[in-house]
Write a structure and sequence with these properties.
Radius of gyration: 19 Å
Largest sheet: 5 strands, mixed, barrel
Strand content: 25-35%
Mean pLDDT: 87
Shape: globular
Strand order of the largest sheet: 1-2-3-5-4
Length: 179
């Protein structure tokens, strides 16, 4: 072999078929966005994220999940639903890219708009996902097919799991986005 890549007959390789939805890539947990409320649902609201209307992204604010455990009754909760047609400030809480279209869950809680935290997928302790925080957001993909998953981790939790011989990557995990 002369270093050339083998030719494949697999129609998904090199045929322009995307294995990974890319329109939602700029939407990461912790990013603030504007959204227009499209409809009310029993659990919350469906929204369109400004600038992503043509990307086919499904977006929502799960009001029940946001306010669970607060003691707010159903009637009080539905009164908090933003009106259909209104524009709201929100922060990306989760992005699911298991299969197209991407699904985005937003938060409108004032505390999350100020500083979103999320449990680290390695240690379980909360990490700050908002800009300037200590979290890294990893989009994990496979060469075998479409879709991805998102892993949120403390910088140090990821760095500790990179083998010691790969010191450069350990250091980059601690510095990424801070230089």
């Amino acid at each position: 072999m002369t270093g050339e890549l083998p030719i494949t007959t697999d129609p998904s390789v090199g045929s322009g078929v995307e294995r990974f939805e890319t329109g939602s890539l700029p939407l990461m947990p912790g990013r603030r966005v504007r959204a227009k409320v499209l409809s009310h649902q029993p659990w919350g609201v469906l929204v369109a994220i400004a600038g992503y209307e043509e990307a086919g992204i499904s977006a929502s604010v799960d009001m029940i999940a946001l306010y669970s455990g607060t003691g707010i009754g159903f009637d009080e909760l539905t009164a908090l639903f933003p009106p259909v047609g209104s524009e709201i400030d929100a922060v990306v809480q989760e992005v699911r890219r298991h299969h197209p279209p991407a699904s985005v869950r937003l938060s409108i809680l004032p505390a999350d708009l100020e500083c979103l935290t999320w449990p680290c997928d390695f240690c379980g302790e909360r990490t700050t996902v908002s800009p300037g925080g200590d979290a890294l957001v990893l989009d994990v993909r496979s060469n075998d097919g479409p879709g991805s998953l998102t892993v949120i981790t403390h910088r140090h939790c990821l760095a500790e799991r990179i083998r010691p011989e790969n010191g450069g990557e350990r250091i980059r995990a601690l510095r990424l986005g801070r230089e």
